[in-house]
Amino acid sequence: MWKKLIPLFATIVIGLLAYFLIEKISKEEAGNLILAKKPVIGFILNGEFDENGWNGAHYQAMAFSAKELGVHVIYKRNVGESPVALGKAVADLAGKGATVIFTTSFGYSPLLVNVAARYPKIHFYCAAGIDQSENVNNYFGRMYQARFLAGLIAGSETRTRSIGYIAAIKICETVRGIDAFTLGVRMVNPKAKVYVYWTNSWNDAIKEKAGANLLIDRYKADILTYHQNTSNISKIARTRGIRSIGYNYDAQSVIGDSYLTAAIWHWDIFYEDIIRNAIAGHFVRTNYWEGIDKGIIGLSPISKDVDSSSLFLLDSLKIALAQGKTDVFYGPIKDNEGKLRVAKGENLSDDVLFNEIDWFVEGVQEVNP
Predict the structure, then answer these.
(1) E strands along the chain, which residues?
(2) Which of 73, 81, 125, 146 has CB 3.0 to 4.6 Å from 41, enough for a Cys bridge?
(3) Is the Cβ–Cβ distance between 222 and 162 less than 8 Å?
(4) For residue 193, what is the DSSP state?
């Protein structure tokens, strides 16, 4: 009799265990996430994990997201922006089982489509990229909105009406950032100028130092900002006794009181969303370009030295941008040669901002070494 009941009891016990296990997994994995099918993530950086800048912001966001979602990430750092270097890194990640690979630099974009074609079952995403294919998509944010708000602070705080901007490579991304920043500056300080020095590199400490010193010595810049991978410029500004506005990452704890604020990324918002979709078996095919309303970009805490009236205006504009009630590139806007580029009542389209803009607004002056 008991022998006949043993299989029945075993079936009941197994069923109960399965029920409670399924209940536990569904609660922990928040709905559709399947524990047994979590992907291996590949993550390619062109710099170091501990940079107080672009690469550090990406690494920290991915590390946080991976921990939150319980996925395994294989990191590749200091990967050169060349077909050989990128191809080698991707091959290694593919060999280790990566099914989703993120590449975190614009410089990988023109190379990635060809490399990705060798791995049709792997999904690729390129930060700041512009090239796309069946298994390659791009992700970025409307950083120009945060640049505009940072410009308001710079314009209200400069005493010399001269602000230095050390920029990397002249592409639409950097041009629209410079323009947005300058529009913010001149909204509160119409006679101020933004002097731009090009390093032609995302990370070149020697050129960055030369540019910063030139802008301070020749053009009397009393605030510096930048579009570079690290916070070198803010360190130089501190050494020279002037203030700075950072980029990518909040480096105030490293820089100190000379740091007014920074236009920063919250990449974890993007990474968590894409990883959740990957766990559920979905490849998000739409290029991602969200703004301040989604929280992917913003400003770091603002220095207590910034005038309170400037903060009131900044908060009002931040809310208006998030609600879509205003736009950074809303006309009339003239370029730095006096030509009307955006008519009154009009604004630049996303296509122009992302793919075409190659001119500078009034108040921008490029400088030579």
Answers:
(1) 40-44, 72-76, 98-103, 123-127, 136-141, 162-167, 193-198, 223-227, 243-248, 259-265, 288-290, 297-299, 333-334, 340-342, 364-366
(2) 73
(3) yes
(4) E
Type and span of the H or E element at 208:
helix 205-219
Sign of torsion over alpha carbons 175, 176, 181, 182: positive
Would you say the pTM of this structure is higher than 0.90? no
The per-residue pLDDT for range 273-331, each reduced to its tens digit, is 999 998 888 888 778 999 999 999 999 999 999 988 899 999 999 999 999 999 999 99
57-102 tens-digit pLDDT: 999 999 999 999 999 999 999 999 999 999 999 999 999 999 999 9
Query: Nearest 5°: phi and psi at 134?
Result: -60, -35
List, in order of start, the domains of the chain with CATH numbers. 35-141+268-290 (3.40.50.2300), 143-264+299-366 (3.40.50.2300)
3-state secondary structure of 339: coil
> Cα torsion at 57, 58, 64, 70 (round to 10°)?
-170
